[in-house]
Structure formats: C-alpha cells, structure tokens
C-alpha cells in the first residue's frame, strides 16, 4: 500500500482529488452560464464570464497535473494557467471598453463612472 491509497476498494487519493477538482470546474462553468443569462448588461456579464472561467481552468489543469504528475505535464499546466490569467482579463477589458464606447451598457446600475467625459 503506497501513501496515496485509501481502504475503499482501490479508491486512492488521486481519484478523490480528481473528482473534487472536476466538480469545482463544473460548478464554475455552471456559475458562469447562470451569470451570463441572469446579469443585466455587458459589463456585469463580463465579470460572470471571466472569473469562473479562470477558476475552472485552474481546477481542470490542476486535475490533469494530479492525474499525470510528470515534469512535462506540470510545466504545461503552469504555462496554461499563466497565459489564461494574462489573456482573460485583457480580453474582458477590451470587450468592456468597446461596450462602454458604443453605449451598450446600463448607466443606471453603475456605481461609479470614472470614464464619463473622458471618452
């Protein structure tokens, strides 16, 4: 019996971690979908689309790294998380900026409009 096995008929710790990480990723995907459907405007929907997306990608990539713990897999996992963490906020910012410039958002629900008069 190695250090990763439990006594549940061959169920080891990796299987449990994999199940939890896939469940977290599925929950993040569900939360993003609900947010995209329920939030009222583009700026709110961007928040719902980007935050759970990054957390879901991190959970899935961590699951792959736990399932196949090799140097190549872990290096690729770190690169995926790094580049997703760079590109998702930038793309959300660009879409939000385009929505603001074209007026496709609701001014009445903004808490603060720091760009009013600057565009």
Notes on the protein architecture:
It is a single chain. The chain is mostly helical. Helix content is 71%, strand content 5%. The chain contains three helices and two strands. A two-stranded antiparallel ribbon has the order 1-2. Strand 1 and strand 2 form a beta hairpin. The longest helix is centred in the C-terminal third of the chain and has 32 residues, at 71-102.
Indicate the mean pLDDT.
85
- The rounded distance between the terminal residues' Cα atoms is 65 Å
The helicity comes to over 70%
The number of helices is: 3
Question: In terms of per-residue confidence, which ranges show pLDDT below 50 for 5 or more consecutive residues?
Answer: none
- The global form is elongated
Q: What is the helix/strand order?
A: EEHHH
Compute the number of strand runs: 2
Indicate the proportion of strand residues: 5-15%
**Strands ordered across the widest β-sheet:** 1-2
What is the alpha-carbon Rg in Å?
A: 20 Å
Q: For the report, how would you describe the main beta sheet?
A: 2 strands, antiparallel
* Helix-and-strand structural type: mainly alpha
